[in-house]
TrEMBL record:
InterPro entries: P-loop_NTPase, Shikimate/glucono_kinase. Pfam families: SKI. Gene3D superfamilies: P-loop containing nucleotide triphosphate hydrolases (3.40.50.300). This is Shikimate kinase. Coiled coil: none annotated. The keyword Iron does not apply. Keywords: Kinase, Transferase. Signal peptide: none annotated. The keyword Metal-binding does not apply. GO terms for molecular function: kinase activity.
């Protein structure tokens, strides 16, 4: 079973995934890290090929990882910041994949605040501190405002990440334990 962490850049997805994977002894994959291993720097890829081609390639990589994943194991998949906000027409099955992730009981939307303006400000501040990003405040603010509206319309579990990562991880673990226990009860013998 895949545990999906979704949300904007700077929300704490990778930090939380690393700690949770250590705490419960499972693997995690970060889609951005895998993309960079295969294709190189994301910003350069987008400059060369355009954002739509990046989104298509990122979706291909996600599907390849998912295809090779053992469904009997638990693993965390950290999705790219825009993964759930791509244009619907990037692939014939993207809408279905997105809905499947959104409706999965083990999908968690991570955000530093549930207040729109506070979240925008925190994300922009965090993104500007990332030395590998070639960006500016206006670009990041525009991007997060657009994406945050889409993220807030998703129906998956929401996790607030503006507290100590250990507390965040324990909350996620408790929710997972509860959901997995309920799923186990539903499974016929």
């Amino acid at each position: 079973m895949l545990i999906h962490f979704i949300g904007p850049g700077g929300a704490g997805k990778t930090t939380t995934a690393k700690m949770l994977s250590k705490q419960i002894y499972i693997d995690y994959m970060d889609l951005d890290e895998v993309f960079m291993e295969i294709e190189g720097d994301i910003s350069e890829y987008i400059d060369r090929n355009g954002y739509i081609n990046y989104a298509k390639r990122n979706l291909e990589i996600y599907l390849s990882l998912k295809k090779n994943f053992n469904p009997d194991k638990l693993m965390i998949m950290v999705c790219s910041s825009g993964f759930m906000t791509y244009p619907e027409d990037i692939s014939a099955n993207y809408h279905h994949i997105k809905k499947q992730i959104e409706n999965d009981s083990l999908t968690f939307l991570l955000l530093p605040s549930f207040d729109f303006e506070t979240c925008v400000n925190l994300i922009v501040e965090r993104q500007l501190q990332r030395s590998y990003l070639i960006t500016n405040k206006e670009k990041e603010e525009f991007k997060i405002r657009k994406r945050l509206i889409q993220y807030l319309n998703l129906s998956c579990s929401r996790i607030l990440t503006n507290e100590d990562t250990k507390i965040v991880v324990n909350k996620i673990q408790n929710i997972m334990n509860h959901k997995l226990k309920n799923e186990y009860k539903k499974t016929p013998p």
